[in-house]
Amino acid sequence: MANILLINGSTHKNGFNSQLLQHIKTIFNELNQEVKELEWQNIPIFSQDNDYPPPPSVERVRRDIIASDALFFITPEYNGFSPGGLKNLIDWLSRSINPKNSRGESFIHNRITAVTSAAAGGGVAVRHTMEQLLTFIRTQVVNEHSCGVTIKEQDWANGTLTITDDEKIGLQRFVQSFLNAVKAKEAERFNPML
Ligand SMILES: Cc1cc2nc3c(=O)[nH]c(=O)nc-3n(C[C@H](O)[C@H](O)[C@H](O)COP(=O)(O)O)c2cc1C
User: Fold this and answer.
1) What was the pLDDT predicted at 96?
2) Could you report the per-residue pLDDT of 93-124, keeping only the tens digit for each?
3) What is the pLDDT of residues 151-162, one digit of tens each?
């Protein structure tokens, strides 16, 4: 079975995106796909001075990414972009595995990726900017049926994310597209003639 990691861009305990992550996890499980959540929140700010070898927290995260096939990001929108912490994580992962070849494959190279968000307006801006970033670092972005969840008026007041039936259908379709891409790549790996 493919190794799929969910990556929460939020550090906000029980925030809207953590709630969305739980919903996404349920969708994967209903499609008989196990997923794990990447633990990354304690990594330091990237510095080229401690890139190789990296601090143990980064080493562990890089190892988890190397072992993965695909990454599904669930992230807040900060001023139209991802939060700085998530960008920092991606910078650590975008480095070459081989320190002697800075143009070589990175830790995240070629992973299948997708982005959703709980934000005002469904996170249209952050989904777009994240997809640009993930394309730039040579991952295979799936955005067919891309969708997010709009944080509603009452949600801001009570801290609970409401996901409408239409949004649930959209998310289901998006996760299914992502899984189709993961499975197609797996099939290709086992039968390179495809
Ligand atoms: C620095 C900052 C910038 C923000 N910018 C946006 C934004 O561009 N669009 C948006 O929808 N919400 C924005 N918000 C509000 C977030 O959607 C809100 O804080 C939300 O709770 C973040 O998601 P979380 O609860 O999953 O952490 C911003 C919040 C912060 C702290």
Assistant:
1) 97
2) 999 999 999 999 999 999 999 999 999 999 99
3) 999 999 999 999
Query: 46 CA to middle of ligand 1, Å?
Result: 23
User: What's the rounded Cα separation, in Å, for the pair 47 and 50?
Assistant: 6
Domain count, the chain: 1
CATH number at residue 25: 3.40.50.360
Q: Are strands 149-150 and 118-119 parallel, antiparallel or unpaired?
A: parallel
Among 6, 13, 79, 155, residue to substitute to test ligand 1 (most atoms within 8 Å of Cβ): 79
Handedness of CA 172, 174, 177, 178 (dihedral sign): negative
* Dihedral of alpha carbons 152, 7, 131, 140, sign: negative
In this prediction the pTM is 0.97
Question: Domain range holding 56?
Answer: 4-190
User: Which residues on neighbouring strands pair with residue 74, listed in sequence order?
Assistant: 8, 116
- For a ligand 1 pocket test, name from 78, 79, 86, 156 the mutation site with the most ligand atoms within 8 angstroms of its C-beta: 78
At 185 the three-state DSSP class reads helix
